[in-house]
Write a structure and sequence with these properties.
The chain is built from nine helices and no strands. The chain has about 200 residues and is mainly α. Helix 4 crosses helix 5. The longest helix has 30 residues. The mean pLDDT is about 95. Protoporphyrin IX containing FE (HEM) binds next to helix 2, helix 3, helix 5 and helix 8.
Length: about 200
């Protein structure tokens, strides 16, 4: 069963599957199927998918480790770029549908509302990661510095949950936030545990 994942058609299929939520949300918006407040539903739906793709990208390494399927590493860059893609659509939908692309309104809103400031910082980090996700950037930065920079994905996960928590704090709706915090906490905890156990095994 797991061997199926190594087939060459799996990655293109995964690519197509990753685009489905975007087509579904934008299509439903165009067909007026997003409920009474379509702008809010679209912005929030895209925010949810950004967090879901963050969980998926952070799941790749533990999965590769426990299954021994090296091929999974080849999905990581693509999934990471989908995190950036959904975060950018989320930002675009907010800037267009909430703010009418009016910079005089947009910039003060980003600064004034802390949960949006936090989202913006997360997006800027994702921009840096996406811009350096190609082989030429790895060569230019050197593998060690590139790896250090790409640890910023953990900060993005923390900021993403904080952004969601802050947004929901007004209405005291923490159920979904707790689920994402638990998933991302477990995935980051796994990395910390692995890092510490590898260090403990290295002789001083
Ligand atoms: C990694 C980056 C980001 C993540 C993971 C993220 C995630 C989310 C999530 C999960 C929600 C709530 C969805 C729900 O209620 O179901 C949300 C809402 C929202 N986010 Fe983000 N977001 C990010 C970046 C941004 C950026 C850059 C902006 C704008 C500058 C932004 C603006 C908003 C707004 C305006 C809402 C909706 C607030 C409302 O409807 O009252 N987010 N985001």
């Amino acid at each position: 069963m797991l061997a199926l994942l190594t087939r060459p058609w799996v990655k293109p299929l995964l690519f197509v599957l990753c685009t489905v939520p975007a087509f579904w949300l934008v299509g439903a918006g165009l067909l007026n199927q997003l409920g009474a407040n379509p702008a809010e539903a679209l912005i929030r739906g895209l925010g949810d998918w950004t967090l879901r793709f963050l969980c998926l990208v952070l799941l790749v390494t533990p999965l590769r480790h426990h299954t021994g399927l090296v091929v999974l590493a080849r999905w990581r860059r693509m999934l990471g770029l989908f995190v950036f893609f959904y975060a950018s659509l989320h930002l675009l939908a907010y800037a267009w549908l909430d703010m009418g692309f009016d910079l005089a309104e947009l910039l003060p809103d980003i600064i004034k509302r802390p949960f949006i400031t936090v989202g913006m910082v997360a997006w800027l980090l994702l921009l840096a990661l996406a811009a350096t996700s190609f082989n030429r950037a790895i060569k230019a930065l050197g593998a060690r510095r590139w790896q250090q920079l790409h640890r910023a994905v953990y900060a993005v996960a923390g900021l993403g949950v904080l952004h969601f928590f802050w947004m929901r704090a007004g209405k005291q709706l923490f159920g979904e936030v707790a689920v994402y915090a638990a998933i991302l906490g477990a995935l980051l905890g796994w990395r910390l545990w692995r890092h510490l156990s590898v260090r403990a095994r290295v002789p001083a």
